[in-house]
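Reopening this one. Same input as before:
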Amino acid sequence: MSLTATPDGVLLIDKAAGMTSHDVVALVRRRLQIKKVGHCGTLDPIATGLLLLTLGRGTKIQDLLMSEDKEYVGTLTLGVTTDTQDRAGKILEEQPVPPLTDEMVRAAFEKFRGDFYQMPPMVSAIKQGGVPLYKLARAGKVVVREPRLVHVYRYGIDRIAPPEIDFRVSCSKGFYVRTYVHDIGEVLSCGAHLKNLRRTRSGRFVVDGAVTVDELQNSNPVDTLGRILTLPEVSRMRGA
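Same output, byte for byte:
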């Protein structure tokens, strides 16, 4: 495949920390000389992991790919809440972390399994009146948001070492892991924020073998083009 061709398909990227999803889209457009590039599901700058990019006619299935469930691994920090619900935000409150048993931690996670309503954070890409909430938040405004019905299919707790807890969660579209962590902190009566996050899966696609940002920047663009999944391949992988 050459740079003169306009590929149609999906490129799996392993996003690096510190980048926005839009930064990755801009990098792919520049490196691969492709104008029509979209992404499936925003990853916050602190997050790493799987970002699905749709190329050419692949952008027509973007909504379909975005609607699929996702899986994350993360670390939360107890005792500190922030205005963004992650470590990138300003500290709002610090509280002592009470003595916690493993059973207390698991009971808090268990409250957020299956269907439940989640209040989207102010610092988010959700639009109100055509304006993203994060822009309103930057202007110091807080607006009424509608709770969203979300679903946690399964979760796992990998390490409990207060103030940190390592966890895994498989969840529905529109789920905010930052808010999940914040709400668990409220149940544990000490607050919490998201320290680290990595998306490991989206639908049938996994981060293992995805193109890293370093590869994108430094490898031959023709090699990267060769790793694009064609639309028939995407359809087969999804079982469609």
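So the earlier flakiness isn't reproducible anymore. For the record, The two ends are 26 Å apart (CA to CA).
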